[in-house]
């Protein structure tokens, strides 16, 4: 019942905003996107949740109704990768496509312990983590990797994985190039379902069906798409990560992809 009341208020607020844009041309309201952040268990709105643009660093907080308006600077023509956080909840990262509806909700799940405690213990836990699929949520809740969940990226099936990865801290472009610990460009080590993803001739796992190589020729599409990927973890260069993902260039980061075809 509480969800029904909160959601009804949210819909009414959107309706008011929609009517307002018909009566004024001073502010481009049709470019605004309203985000409603709520507790996944109680369905109550979450006040003071931080919504941050991972590319620009711009951020804002939700109001007492759980809503926040994303001004045009947040969602450019290429979209935006946002991080939604609140003390006591597991953070969520999501890609906002410029063509999505002007209003959408984000559910935050309560953390087992408060985030400062998780972060304090994270270095110790990460070194002991065995790097399995079952530990995905625990690693993501530590705040050390940037994580993308399958239910979020599956909303954009025509995109390549690189369209999401490029917004993660430490990543240079959608092909996955990173900044090394020495401030140079480097190629991260890729892992798929816990195993090392070999270099070419296998395709770059981040490429999509329409990606082209720098010389302009089409490259072989990646076998991984938003529809068959369950989760992604991005570890910037120098960031602690499970020993299972510690191979490759020690000065560069790692990108871990979990597919829906393997349950290891």
How would you sum up this structure, described in words?
The protein contains 5 helices and 14 strands. With 264 residues, the protein is α+β, with helices and mostly antiparallel strands. The protein has helices spanning 2-23, 115-128, 136-141, 150-153, 162-165, and strands at 33-39, 50-53, 59-61, 67-70, 80-85, 92-96, 103-108, 146-149, 178-179, 185-186, 189-192, 195-196, 229-235, 254-259. It has a 5-stranded mixed beta sheet with strand order 8-13-14-11-12. The model is unreliable at 4-31 and 113-124 (pLDDT under 50). A hairpin with a 5-residue loop joins β2 (50-53) and β3 (59-61). 19% of the residues lie in helices and 23% in strands. The protein starts with a helix and ends in a 5-residue tail after the last strand. The chain folds into 2 domains: 2-108, Carboxypeptidase-like, regulatory domain (Immunoglobulin-like), CATH 2.60.40.1120; 115-259, Ferric Hydroxamate Uptake Protein, Chain A, domain 1 (Beta Complex).
